[in-house]
Design brief:
Rossmann fold; 14 helices; 9-stranded mixed sheet; Arc Repressor Mutant, subunit A; 15% strand; alpha/beta; single chain
């Protein structure tokens, strides 16, 4: 407990450690600070017994001043897990999933610290590429987790013991909390606000930050062609062929012949690379085209359906809502140009 000098009101202090390591992304260090400062600002209007102070400490296993991915110097203090209530792990600067693997390979001491924090029952949180460091620490084994939508297959391949919820915006399994894209560090900070200061405080902070707490899934933002996955030349050839035939029916034997393999080999390699059948993959391609048309044209929903190979607009609407978690109209309203409405 600490005393507020001006009011003399006792408040509960929660200590949040942010793990700093060479090459970490700045957003994981600074985004939580914005949220916690807003919590401090609104605390004066809350009942004394509900006031919580979230104190941030930049900690490291290496000590001293460490440089982030952009070269920003962060002065750190030695990590003392016993003094922490929660540990935030920032993201790792990367352009590909391979770069994340290379970076985590040299972060042995950081992984050990994360494991120690989890074993001590502390809340451990990470977003996007930072989730890979939780995986390296072993704290996600057998647990549910998420990461940025484009890194899902890479996380599943690297840590098969993780129960990946690829479309989750934020996934909490006990005290291990993971989130999607790098901007989700706001979501993680809000999770901590709710855990220690309550749901009302979380909602108030979110309103100050203009953050939408109703958005629970990453699915509307997914661009399937950009998902990081092992390159398979056969799938590349098949994708090109299928994209030219989205409005017409095709036969598996035609696709297999174009790719120069047997139908059995085609199905096996499709499943191994995409975890889908060719027929389901075509649905994905059609929906990708539909999303692009909804984002960039004034075509009606019925016209979009026709352009993507759906003879029945009602069927298109049903499949779109099932797979994208929004109706076509909702998708256009959220992600289309403002003047399309």
């Amino acid at each position: 407990m600490v005393q507020l000098a001006k009011t003399g009101v006792a408040v509960r202090k929660v200590v949040v450690g942010i793990l700093v390591f060479p090459g970490c992304q700045e957003s994981g260090l600074t985004a939580p600070l914005d949220v916690f400062r807003i919590l401090d600002a609104i605390s004066v209007s809350r009942p004394p017994e509900a006031r919580v102070e979230l104190e941030v400490r930049f900690i490291s296993t290496r000590g001293g001043n460490l440089q982030t991915a952009a070269g920003m110097g962060i002065q750190t203090q030695a990590a003392d897990i016993g003094q922490l209530d929660a540990l935030i792990v920032p993201g790792i600067h990367h352009r590909t999933a391979d770069e994340i693997s290379q970076a985590t390979a040299v972060l042995e001491s950081e992984a050990a610290l994360i494991a120690q924090a989890a074993q001590a029952g502390k809340a451990v949180l990470a977003s996007c590429s930072g989730v890979f460091l939780l995986g390296k620490a072993g704290v996600l084994e057998g647990r549910r987790a998420t990461t940025s939508w484009w890194l899902g297959p890479a996380l599943r391949a690297a840590f098969p013991g993780v129960h990946l919820e690829a479309d989750g915006r934020i996934v909490a399994d006990d005290a291990c909390v993971s989130a999607g894209a790098v901007t989700s560090y706001h979501d993680l900070a809000l999770w901590l606000v709710e855990r220690f200061a309550g749901r009302e405080a979380r909602h108030t902070c979110a309103r100050f930050l203009l953050l939408d707490l109703d958005r629970q899934t990453q699915t509307p933002f997914v661009i399937d062609s950009l998902i990081e996955k092992p390159r398979e030349d056969l799938i590349v050839r098949a994708r090109s062929w299928l994209n030219q035939r989205l409005t017409t029916a095709f036969r598996i034997e035609e696709l297999a012949s174009h790719c120069g393999v047997s139908q059995r080999t085609l199905l096996r390699r499709f499943h191994a690379t995409t975890d889908r059948t060719p027929a389901r993959y075509v649905q994905t391609l059609r929906l990708e085209r539909a999303k692009a048309l909804l984002e960039s044209t004034r075509l009606s929903v019925a016209e979009v359906a026709s352009e993507c190979g759906y003879a029945d607009p009602a069927t298109f609407r049903k499949i779109f809502k099932l797979r994208i978690r929004l109706t076509p109209q909702q998708y256009r309203s959220r992600l289309g140009p403002p003047d399309l409405g």
